[in-house]
């Protein structure tokens, strides 16, 4: 027995034929199965402006090109690979002065964030999220930051020290800051009397060492009138529920304030929020009732999570009129009364419904015998639901159902019907065996596979290295899979 180990043919082609790409301007190999290290020559192509190698299996360190010849590369995306080590020194970037976007998220890069990245003359977007970077963000009051900066994304690292937003005071084009998931990074946001020159669209500071009064005394937030995403979860923030955000001119898409110490209620709200898609205020001390006109206030909600609060009263029927709801979590509150039957059937897109640990009652599933077709998770436990499970209940895509600690009765054999009606359960594999066939030697399969692979890549190699293919823009997108 012997084992033949070889480098994936595509990598050999990528290394061998890189010179044939001398006229290429855009290289997009996103979302494939490429592996190995990145060829250094890739970053020396004279006309290449755009590289996207995200969502592959590349590994090793960031390539270091010490040539003094400048290249026109403007966009470099290496997200979601297995690259590691510290980023190279400033000298290695001296030929990349045209970079506008550097995106290295979801890798294993480590060490300190280099100062020179903030000084690249044309840099607009820096995304170093979900890596192992440590130490401070190299910005201080005297930093001469690139005036082109629009987006700073450093979430989920091990950053420490302190950063003050006033140090970003010359960045008039700044639109996005995401520092979430850096528990030891102190972030100064509220600077009384200071009006920033920028208007953020996205602000994410969840799980940072943040000023606890950013909502109670919202000096900074009240200056930001174009916010689309506001994530401030996991900060033990104090103050009342910031309903003042819901103005007539608001453009909010996502409001995440979960796991804080907010009080007050979410009612009254006076203005419709036509863009709002996600509200997450779980694990707070919010009281009061759900707005009776909730569907007209938030007509395009996809996610509503108000779990683990002190919400009282009934579930309003108008909740069923929010057509696009995918996740609805009202668990661990003090809701009472019967659940409108439409909650179980009206949502064509609903995947998760959690009503656990309330005081809800009435017939289970509203007395109906069908659930929303797309629902996968259903939690009704620790309530006061009664009645029997309908014998002809159809379960859509149901995978998890929890009904414990209620007042249900009847026989459990009806549950078999849920599986029978489950459109997402794969059928049992068909057992088929031709006893008269002669078993095929597994080695034959190996030979056939090897012949196909080597022949196929030989054709690909010829195509890529042929003179007529040198100016081709390579795109190898994977076809997305649609699940129920």
TrEMBL record:
SUPFAM superfamilies, alphabetized: L domain-like
Matches recorded under Pfam families: LRR_1 (PF00560)
Alphabetically ordered keywords of this record: Glycoprotein, Leucine-rich repeat, Membrane, Repeat, Signal, Transmembrane, Transmembrane helix
TM helices/strands, residue ranges: 443-465
Residue ranges of coiled coil: none
Signal peptide limits: 1-19
Transmembrane found in the keyword field: yes
Domain of life, per lineage: Eukaryota
Keyword rRNA-binding: no
Gene3D superfamilies (UniProt xref): Ribonuclease Inhibitor
Cross-referenced PROSITE patterns: LRR (PS51450)
One cellular component (GO) term of this entry: plasma membrane
Family membership: Belongs to the RLP family.
Name of the protein this chain belongs to: Uncharacterized protein
């Amino acid at each position: 027995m012997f084992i033949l180990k070889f480098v994936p043919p595509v990598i050999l082609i990528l290394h061998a034929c890189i010179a044939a790409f001398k006229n290429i301007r855009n290289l997009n190999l996103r979302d494939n199965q490429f592996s190995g290290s990145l060829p250094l020559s890739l970053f020396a192509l004279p006309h290449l402006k755009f590289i996207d190698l995200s969502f592959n299996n590349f590994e090793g360190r960031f390539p270091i090109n010490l040539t003094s010849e400048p290249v026109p590369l403007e966009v470099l995306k290496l997200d979601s690979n297995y690259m590691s080590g510290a980023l190279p020194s400033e000298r290695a970037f001296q030929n990349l002065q045209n970079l506008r976007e550097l995106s290295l998220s979801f890798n294993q890069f480590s060490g300190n964030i280099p100062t020179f990245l903030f000084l690249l003359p044309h840099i607009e977007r820096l995304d170093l999220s979900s890596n192992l970077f440590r130490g401070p963000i190299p910005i201080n009051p005297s930093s001469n930051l690139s005036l082109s900066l629009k987006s700073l994304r450093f979430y989920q690292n091990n950053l420490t020290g302190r950063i003050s937003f006033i140090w970003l005071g010359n960045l008039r084009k700044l639109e996005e800051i995401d520092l979430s998931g850096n528990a030891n990074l102190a972030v100064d946001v509220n600077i009384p009397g200071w009006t920033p020159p920028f208007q953020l669209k996205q602000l994410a500071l969840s799980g940072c060492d943040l000023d606890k009064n950013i909502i109670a005394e919202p000096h900074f937030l009240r200056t930001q009138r174009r916010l689309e995403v506001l994530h401030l979860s996991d900060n033990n923030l104090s103050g009342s529920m910031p309903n003042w955000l819901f103005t007539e001119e608001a453009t909010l898409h996502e409001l995440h304030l979960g796991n804080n110490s907010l009080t007050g209620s979410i009612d009254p709200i006076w203005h419709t929020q036509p863009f709002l898609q996600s509200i997450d205020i779980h694990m707070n001390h919010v009281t009061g009732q759900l707005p009776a006109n909730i569907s007209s206030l938030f007509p395009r909600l996809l996610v509503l999570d108000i779990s683990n609060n002190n919400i009282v009263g009934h579930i309003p029927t108008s909740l069923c009129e929010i057509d696009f709801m995918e996740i609805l979590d009202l668990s661990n509150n003090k809701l009472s009364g019967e659940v409108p039957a439409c909650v179980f059937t009206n949502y064509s897109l609903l995947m998760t419904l959690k009503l656990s640990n309330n005081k809800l009652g009435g017939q289970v599933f509203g007395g109906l015998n069908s659930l929303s077709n797309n629902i996968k998770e259903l939690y009704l436990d620790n309530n006061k639901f009664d009645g029997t499970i309908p014998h002809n209940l159809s379960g859509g895509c149901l995978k998890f159902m929890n009904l414990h600690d209620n007042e249900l009765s009847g026989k459990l054999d009806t549950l078999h019907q849920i599986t029978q009606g489950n459109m997402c359960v794969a059928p049992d594999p068909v057992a088929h065996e031709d006893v008269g066939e002669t078993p095929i030697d597994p080695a034959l399969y190996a030979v056939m596979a090897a012949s196909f692979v080597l022949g196929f890549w030989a054709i690909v190699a010829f195509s890529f290295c042929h003179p007529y293919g040198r100016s081709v823009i390579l795109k190898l997108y994977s076809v997305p899979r649609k699940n129920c």
